[in-house]
Write a structure and sequence with these properties.
CATH class: Alpha Beta
CATH topology: hypothetical protein yedk fold
Strand content: 35-45%
GO biological process, one term: protein-DNA covalent cross-linking repair
Order of helices and strands: EHEEEEEEHEEEEEEEEHHEE
CATH superfamily: SOS response associated peptidase-like
Number of helices: 4
Family: Belongs to the SOS response-associated peptidase family.
Structural class: mainly beta
CATH architecture: Alpha-Beta Complex
Keywords: Covalent protein-DNA linkage, DNA damage, DNA-binding, Hydrolase, Lyase, Protease
Distance between the termini: 24 Å
Mean pLDDT: 89
Pfam family, one: SRAP
Number of strands: 17
EC number: 3.4.-.-
Length: 229
């Protein structure tokens, strides 16, 4: 399960990694985002109507309506920021997006927390040539246009979520439920974006622990302040 991630890569670095042409970069003057929480805005790579990759901003979490247990009246919608790999084809919440609207979520590190009072935050990144850097990579994601009745007036209707799977040996001791985001590697970007559901399913696997590291650890370390790798 992932409830906090960072993307401090520059727009140029994202365009280069995901092979997005400058005219399909919809982010404008994108700022580094050291802490992206559920319902927050974040860059996403998807295929446009012509089948070309574009960088576009979406809010994190598919929305579903909620009602108060006390009054029975509608309250703020729930935001589903993680999609379990074993429910992608079973749940109506995910199935349509998994079949037709997969995306890549640019990331430089993600956070998991262990313990309470005080909790310890662990920021996970990929290994790279620079031991202090954060090489950009991609979560497997899904996206959809949200129900207009569930979004606030100033919010974009576009929403994304992150696919999760079983955690590797590095993350499992820290994550209470033994989950981690699915990481898609560059040679597989096109398959995840445009392949059929069976082809995409072959990419849903646990990322090797020996290719990851704990980039930051400490009490209250709620933002990735590392440099772009």
């Amino acid at each position: 399960m992932c409830n906090l991630y960072a993307n401090i890569a520059t727009a140029e670095a994202m365009r280069r990694l995901f092979q997005v042409s400058a005219d399909l970069d919809r982010l404008g003057n994108a700022e580094p985002r050291p802490a992206i929480f559920p319902k927050g805005l974040a860059p996403v790579v998807r295929l446009d109507a012509d089948g070309k990759r574009e960088l576009i901003e979406m809010r994190w979490g598919f929305l579903t309506p909620q009602v108060s247990k006390k009054t029975g009246k509608p309250i703020k919608p729930a935001a589903w920021n993680n999609a379990r790999d074993d429910k992608l084809r079973k749940s109506g919440l995910w199935r349509g997006s998994y079949e037709d609207r997969r995306c890549l979520v640019p990331v430089t590190s993600f956070n998991e927390t262990k313990g309470r009072q005080p909790a310890t935050d662990y920021w996970f990144a990929l290994t790279g040539e620079d031991p202090d850097g954060r090489p950009p990579f991609a979560f497997a994601g899904l996206w959809r246009g949200e129900n207009p009745e569930l979004i606030e007036e100033d919010e974009t209707e576009l929403r994304h979520t992150v696919v999760t799977t079983e955690a590797n040996e590095l993350i499992r001791p820290i994550h209470a439920k033994g989950r981690m985001p699915v990481i898609i590697e560059a040679p597989d970007y096109e398959t995840w974006l445009s392949g059929d559901p069976d082809q995409a399913a072959a990419l849903i696997r646990t990322f090797p622990a020996d290719r990851m590291r704990i980039a930051l650890q400490g009490v209250g370390e709620k933002a990735d302040r590392g440099s772009d790798g």
